[in-house]
Structures are given as structure tokens and as C-alpha cells.
Amino acid sequence: MDQPLILDGLRVAEDIKRKVKEKVAGLKEKGIVPCLATILVGDDPSSATYVRMKGNACRKLGIESIRIHLPKETTTEELLATIHELNDRDDVHGILLQHPVPSHIDERKAFEAIHIDKDVDGVTSLGYGQSAFGFGLYPSCTPAAILSIMDYYQLPIAGKHAVVIGRSPILGKPVSQLLLNRNATVTICHSYTQNLEHHVKQADIVVAAVGKPRFVQGDWIKPGAVILDAGYNKGNIGDVDYDACVAKSGAITPVPGGVGPVTIATLVKHTVEAAERKATLQAQ
């Protein structure tokens, strides 16, 4: 078998950001500065790192970044009030509520409070529904990143059998819908799936989004399969046992340097698109 293709997310992200930078320059010529507001509740170190990375990505591309850090004691009502304030701000084009929030907060209610025009991370049920129907403005960023990687490397989707391991509302479920909309045959697996190994062995495309380090084993992989590892666990470890799976794969994303950088690039891309859309609507 040929050597597997290593799907370099950093390379894909740079391509996205190059195009974003051109759009930002065009907006600034019109006096518009795209702006992403991020909300972090509590002091989870991983979440703080993610928010900082997203803010840095914005700054490097000339996008305004507003960082709101609320104490872990924040109530659902207080968080909702913050989101509503950002919804009402004309200078804010995208809102990101960093997941997870402290357990006493109704996270779903908070996500639903984000206005659809500013839901650049694709977390609302309306945004999910629109994406599932194929006309959503901003699909969930990690699922969109997975498809961007496949498109960049011209990996075929139509007619392929994709197995998605995981069914979260911001990853497993939406990526399944996006693949289905691209004419893949999709099997969704989860913690209750029996004979998981059997299902994975049938897959031309494997999306690992289960949140367990090195969960997907090498002997589960169909020779030549495309593996997209959307997991990120402590110690920079993905959901795929990379060393065991790489030899059997046709193409595979590493961790780190795979899906993660493209997810962040997709977030800033969606924010700029939101700014462009608002400018177009205001000009009408």
C-alpha cells in the first residue's frame, strides 16, 4: 500500500486565513472592523487556552477580539444578560461561548440565546437545523473544518461510507449531517453501539469524535481509509491511536496539527463572513 497522506491542518488553516485576511482588508476599506466576542465562564485552564488561541488568531488577521471572562459563580440569568448585550451591539459580528460552562449553568439555554446572525460557532438549534437542511450560514466549526480538510486535499466524499464515532450536538451530529449533504452514506456510532469495531471496519471515512484518548485501534481500520481525528485529550493526544492507525490509512490527521488549527481558522472565517453579510444587508 502507498504511504498514507498526512493531512496537515496547519497548511489548510493558513490557506483559509490568507483568504480571510484579504476579506478583512476589503471590509476595513469600508470602515468595518470584524469583531468576535468570546465568553469564558470559570477558570478551566484548557478553556482559557482555547479562548486565548482564538483571540490571538483574530489579532493576527486584523479582527477585533472582545474577551469576556465571567466568574464560575455566574448564574444562567447573568450569562444570558451578557449574551443579550452582545446581541445588541452593532460592533460585534460573532459570539463564541466557550464550552463547557460550569455545571450549574443551563448551557443549552445560553447557546440558544445567541442571535442566529452572530452564531459563528454553529451552536444554536436553529443554526444546526439550517445546516442539516443545507442552507445554514455558519455550521459548527469543527465539522466545517473536517470538510475543509477533505476539500483542500481533494478527498472524495460522495458515495463513500463515513462512520462517525460520537454524537455530540456540536460535533458528531452536525458533521454527520454535513457528510450526508455531500452524498456520503453515514453511520453514527456512540457509547451504546454494539460491535463498534465491525462498523468502523466498513468505513471509507472515519471521524473520531468520542473524547477518549487513543480509542480507535489500528486493527479496526479498513485499508486505505481516511481518518479524521477530532479528539484532543490531555497530553496532546487524539481519539485515534495514531501510530497503530497511520500504517493502514490512506490519509490521516495528526494531533496536534490536524483538525484543531482549521477549527480556529473556520471560526475567524465565519466571523468575517458575518461582518460581510451585515454590511451587505445595511447597504440594501
Automatic annotation (TrEMBL):
Keyword Transport tagged: no
GO molecular function, one term: methylenetetrahydrofolate dehydrogenase (NADP+) activity
Record keywords: Amino-acid biosynthesis, Histidine biosynthesis, Hydrolase, Methionine biosynthesis, Multifunctional enzyme, NADP, One-carbon metabolism, Oxidoreductase, Purine biosynthesis
Pathway per the UniProt entry: One-carbon metabolism; tetrahydrofolate interconversion
Record note on quaternary structure: Homodimer.
InterPro entries the record matches: Aminoacid_DH-like_N_sf, NAD(P)-bd_dom_sf, THF_DH/CycHdrlase, THF_DH/CycHdrlase_cat_dom, THF_DH/CycHdrlase_NAD-bd_dom
Domain Tetrahydrofolate dehydrogenase/cyclohydrolase catalytic: 7-121
Its EC number(s): 1.5.1.5, 3.5.4.9
Catalytic activity: (6R)-5,10-methylene-5,6,7,8-tetrahydrofolate + NADP(+) = (6R)-5,10-methenyltetrahydrofolate + NADPH; (6R)-5,10-methenyltetrahydrofolate + H2O = (6R)-10-formyltetrahydrofolate + H(+)
Superkingdom of this protein's organism: Bacteria
Chain ranges of the Tetrahydrofolate dehydrogenase/cyclohydrolase NAD(P)-binding domain: 140-278
Function: Catalyzes the oxidation of 5,10-methylenetetrahydrofolate to 5,10-methenyltetrahydrofolate and then the hydrolysis of 5,10-methenyltetrahydrofolate to 10-formyltetrahydrofolate.
Official protein name in the record: Bifunctional protein FolD
Binding site for NADP(+): 166-168
GO BP annotations, alphabetical order: L-histidine biosynthetic process; methionine biosynthetic process; purine nucleotide biosynthetic process; tetrahydrofolate interconversion
Family named by the database record: Belongs to the tetrahydrofolate dehydrogenase/cyclohydrolase family.
Example of a GO cellular component annotation carried by this entry: cytosol
One Pfam family named in its UniProt record: THF_DHG_CYH_C
